[in-house]
Amino acid sequence: MSSDDKQNDWSQDPSLSGIDFARLQALQQMASQSRGKSQAEMMPFLLSLMQGNQGGAQFSASEADLIISAIKAGKSKQEAAKIDQMVRLFRSAASGKKR
Q1: CA–CA separation, 97 vs 24, rounded Å?
Q2: What superkingdom heads the lineage (predicted)?
């Protein structure tokens, strides 16, 4: 399987099997639109996912974690580290708003 196939096939990750298919399809559409984007361009996509609202679908925190893990599986170590960094920033900002 090529790197592109892995990136395009993240939604088939077995760990995502408990997430409703329609919600995964909405997320897949948004992920396709975000493919090839820079870290800054990916921020709105990940922020929306972290807030639990992506493409009209609601995702729990645990579902968002599973989705992020599946997305990172098709990325280089550097890209995965950037995604982790963005997730930490979003979570930090979100916890600051709850106070």
Answers
A1: 28
A2: Bacteria
Q: How far is CA 64 from CA 2, 6, 51, in A?
A: 25, 19, 9
pTM of the complete model: 0.57
Q: What is the pLDDT of residues 54-94, one digit of tens each?
A: 556 667 777 778 778 877 776 789 988 988 888 888 788 77
Residue 54 CA, distance from chain mean position: 10
Interacting residues of 92 by C-beta distance below 8 A, sequence separation 6+: none
- The SS3 call for residue 58 is strand
Sorted by where each begins, the domain ranges of the chain are 3-98
Nearest to 75, CA basis, from 23, 37, 47 = 37
Residue 21: which H helix or E strand, with range?
helix 21-34
CA distance readout (Å), 46 to 1, 67, 77, 79: 26, 10, 18, 13
Please name which of 12, 54, 59, 53 lies closest in space to residue 29, comparing C-alpha atoms. Answer: 54
